[in-house]
Amino acid sequence: MIVVGAGIVGAACAVELQSRGRQVLLVDRLYPGAGVTAAGMGHLVALDETEDELDLCLLSLKHWDAYLRDKGGLAEHSRCGTLWVAEDEDQMAHAAARAEKLARKGWQASQLTGAQVAAAEPSLRGGLAGGVLVSADGVVYPPAVARDLAMQLLAMGGRTMFGAAVRAIGDRCIELDSGQRIDTGDVVLAAGNGVPQLLPDMPVFPRKGHLAITDRYPGRLSHQVVSMGYGQTAAGSDALAVAANVQPRPTGQWLIGSCRQDGIENTDPDPRVLAAVLRSAIALLPCLAEMRILRSWTGMRPATPDGRPIIGRHPARAGTWLAAGHEGLGVTTAFGTAQLLADLMSGRPPALATDLYSPSRFIHDPA
Amino acid sequence: MIQPDSSCAVTVNGISVRVPPGASVAAALVAAGTLCTRRSVTGQMRFAFCGIGQCQECRVSIDGQPHRLACRTSCKEGMHIVTGGEG
Ligand SMILES: Cc1cc2nc3c(=O)[nH]c(=O)nc-3n(C[C@H](O)[C@H](O)[C@H](O)COP(=O)(O)OP(=O)(O)OC[C@H]3O[C@@H](n4cnc5c(N)ncnc54)[C@H](O)[C@@H]3O)c2cc1C
Ligand code: FES
Question: What's the CA gap between A62 and B2, in Å, rounded?
């Protein structure tokens, strides 16, 4: 069988399927992690916008723990935790609810007062209402993980084919740009933003984000600091949603996000948008204004209309499966996705309800 | 010829050295016998390489400000230069 796309999602699926006895060929038009996986922040975070999102995060985070036990150094992992900061009483109420919800599911989260937040992260501006500290969250460098998973696949007897673009998926076969046709059993499409080109009925679309990274300032930030406003802004066409998200890298650098924009095809950094992102981060962490930014770039999150990933069998095409559309959470949820997909492919009852993720939700009139 | 009274005093890691006014901070480091500007991510010692502000290897802390380029900064009386940081 073939997995198309060696981003973190496809690479995780390939390893999981190979470990369950399938013979996997992992194909990518570039190389492992070259897509969105190289652009994002690599925050391993339990998000709880919906109950199912949290369940998928927690399922995945357990796998991350197992993976990082012997690969932590390689993944540039640090368990910095997430400090969600609430700027007013309204956000504080959300913070309290988050702390309660995560703790109930066994993912340790404690509610902090304004003074406790200041003590936990002295670089934050004064006068914050409080927050939530989720100490088990962490950060990784995602492309290094995708590469490692591809190596793991090879070590397990799987195969890889990089620098090979797929131009069409047929009936239990794929066709490469080179004209080569490869016959196979199942095809798993994990091509991120490349999905709609190969399966036009799958509405994966790009949601642009801007990021910047500073020079090294060791010891000034200990937690990934995220505004409670993160993820709360509804996505509109071209609407710019900004919420401060600042991550300490193991090098002492600060990685700064984040924003979301729909309907934009141009992948160049836009100074106006970057300025809005930096301003929102400086508003929380004033010393950032004095720091040097080394580089800025953008990434296109592979999003879906209902904000949920697409995991499962294509209803109208024999042997075609999907693992895509993870938007801003694909690093965190890659391993859980792999487990669910492998369960579905082997006919085993999946660890979580998967109807919500089924590709068939986008096909109203299956052939 | 540079007169002694036209020199300026700076400190390099707490050690006082005198250099001609206008000398680069990189020159002051040499005068102080400090052939390390910063440490790389893996802990390697680095030193000024290009001398023209391109390679970024010569970053030091000057008067408490990290990441100043030693090759592109002129010494001023009383400057405190600190090297070996994780710049
Ligand atoms: C700004 C930003 C911040 C983010 N922050 C986080 C975060 O903190 N935490 C988190 O969990 N997630 C985060 N993400 C999201 C995360 O990066 C993505 O969800 C994840 O990387 C998606 O992985 P993927 O494998 O689906 O896609 P990709 O990494 O894009 O992989 C798809 C692969 O398919 C290949 N491909 C495409 N078309 C073809 C074709 N026709 N033939 C062959 N190969 C093909 C591509 O080359 C690519 O390698 C962020 C994303 C962005 C943009
Ligand atoms: S020596 Fe190269 S930038 Fe200073």
Answer: 68
- Predicted confidence (pLDDT) at residue B5 exceeds the cutoff of 70: no
Would you state the pLDDT for residue B1? Answer: 55
Alpha carbon distance A243, A86 (integer Å): 12
Q: Does A90 touch chain B (CB under 8 A)?
A: no
pLDDT surpasses 60 at A367: no
What residue in B sits closest to A216 (Cα-Cα)? B87
Indicate the burial class of A123 (C-beta count within 10 angstroms; 0-12, 13-18, 19 or more): middle
Contact with chain B for residue A252, Cβ under 8 A: yes
Name the burial class of residue A6, with classes exposed (0-12), middle (13-18) and buried (19+) by CB atoms within 10 angstroms of its CB. Answer: buried
Angle between helices A8-19 and A142-155 (to 10 degrees): 30
Collect all residues with Cβ–Cβ distance below 8 Å to A33 and sequence separation of at least 6.
A6, A7, A8, A11, A142, A143, A144, A145, A146, A147
A220 lies within 8 A of chain B by CB:
no
Please state the φ and ψ torsions of residue A15, each to the nearest 5 degrees.
Answer: -65, -45
Which ipTM was obtained for this model?
A: 0.82
CA distances from residue A249 to A112, A191, A266, B10, B84 in whole angstroms, order as listed: 23, 28, 28, 33, 20
The structure's pTM equals 0.94
Neighbours of A267 (CB within 10 A): 12
Contact A111, A228 (CB under 8 A): no
The amino acid that residue A337 corresponds to is T
Alpha-carbon gap, residue A263 to A239, rounded angstroms: 9
Q: What's the CA gap between A120 and A124, in Å, rounded?
A: 9
Amino acid residing at B77: E
Q: In chain A, where do the E strands start and end? A: 2-4, 25-28, 43-44, 82-86, 110-113, 130-134, 138-139, 159-162, 166-170, 173-176, 181-183, 187-189, 205-216, 224-227, 241-248, 253-262, 293-303, 310-313, 320-324
Query: A134 near A81, Cβ under 8 Å?
Result: yes
- Rounded CA-CA distance A51/A356 in Å is 12
Q: Which two three-digit tokens encode residue A223?
A: 């937690």
Would you state the pLDDT for residue B3?
57
* Cα B69 versus chain centre, distance: 8
Phi-psi map region of A51: left, alpha, beta (phi>0 left; psi -120 to 50 alpha): alpha
Instruction: Assess contact for A172 and A187: CB atoms under 8 A.
Output: yes
Query: Which of these, A262, A348, A356, lies nearest to A309 by C-alpha position?
Result: A356
CB neighbourhood size of A11 (10 A)? 31
The bound ligand whose nearest atom lies closest to the alpha carbon of A29 is 1
- Ligand 2 atom with the smallest distance to the CA of B58 is 4
